[in-house]
Known about the structure:
Elements: H1 3-23, E1 40-43, E2 46-50, H2 63-76, H3 84-88, H4 91-104, E3 108-112, H5 115-126, E4 132-136, H6 141-150, E5 153-157, H7 162-179, E6 189-194, H8 206-215, E7 219-223, H9 238-241, E8 250-254, E9 264-268, H10 270-279, H11 281-284, H12 291-305, H13 307-322, E10 336-342, H14 344-356, E11 359-360, E12 363-364, E13 374-379, H15 386-399
Parallel strand pairs: 2-11, 4-5, 4-6, 6-7, 7-8
Antiparallel strand pairs: 1-2, 3-9, 8-9, 10-13, 12-13
Helix pairs in contact: 2-12, 4-12, 5-6, 7-8
Residues 114-116, 119, 140, 142, 194, 198, 223, 225-226, 254, 256, 264 line the site of pyridoxal-5'-phosphate.
Amino acid sequence: MGHGALMNSFEQELSERLVAHQRQGLLRQLRRVDSPQSARIQLDGRVLTNFSSNDYLGLAGHPVLKQAAMAAVEQFGAGAGASRLICGNLGVYQDLEEVLASFKGTQAALSFSTGYAAALGTIGALAGPDDVLVLDKLVHASVIDAARLSGAVLRIFRHNDLNHLEHHLKWGRARVEAAGPGHTHKGRILIVTESVFSMDGDHAPLREIAGLKERYGAWLMVDEAHATGLYGANRRGLTEQEGIASQTEIQMGTLGKAAGASGGYICGSRTLIDYLVNKARSFVFSTAPVPAAAAAAAAGIRLIASAEGEERRKYLWSLVSKITPTQVRSTSPSAIIPIQIGDETKAVESSEKLLQNGIFIPAIRYPTVARGRARLRMTVTASHTPQDVDALDQALAELQLPTS
Ligand SMILES: *Cc1c(COP(=O)(O)O)cnc(C)c1O
């Protein structure tokens, strides 16, 4: 068989797989956007009101962040040249980490290229085949992939189900204690949960989880991707609001959502950070992010910590409370508002109808959520106006969705 025939069968097989994907309503396509990320975006040549972004505080296009990124380009150039341990440890990363540690009130911080890389590197560094990882059923794909890659024993508890969590902790305790000699280190149990869940907007029962973690001698990692900047007296996240930050060994987050830039972070003790600098493979074996990203992220975190950050948060909550309560499934305040549809194809159709009315809300489908649990996931941000929210309410009413 010649090279051409081989390629053809390759192309053919992939096309068949894509067709099967499409029949299930699961096909995804990139849509070109020709404007900055904001309440309004220009998508495929049309201006739409955007309820899809995680730029919760409206910082992605903020002049202060843009200026910081440009200044970093002037000072450090466009690229970093190498991984940070080789020769790429530019001052901007250290500044970012000092800002992060001071914002979160931890001894130290480490930044990564993305939140995904932070999860991958950190979980892989902390857990291996002797250890037990206990995860909430709805944790983000980055945590699931990290858990699989780590080789640790996995236990998944039903979403926010404390009894099921405790069941796994009991099992895990017995297992790590039985491991005994011949193992390089004592087996550990690591619990990983999100604080505010990305696709449902609901909150984890963090105080109870922290209580169980203490009781069973486990470690706790909390992914604050959707909570940093939005919860707690100093906007550090839900661990602050629930008073469990000091019990959370590993605080994780992204710099790509409320912080308005790009990157991921881990905050915790100095020892944890020193350990990750040595052991987190996604940190050690990857070129440092562009200086502009780190500088924008540092400016974003400073802004969140400022009086303007508090104003933006207050304004965001005022918009969230304006949205018709029947559409708000979750009782805890959240800028993430899912409208459950169920069927994948129907969800896509609803999203298309909204698009015709000038509103952009993506249909979220498997594998981001479970099969048959497709939804419209809308997010409100501080760059929306009250009129945007009224227009949203009206467009949703016209959709005539079944009220759950
Ligand atoms: C977005 C997200 C991540 C990944 O962060 P990136 O910086 O986008 O890679 C991790 N966890 C959760 C819950 C997220 O929503």
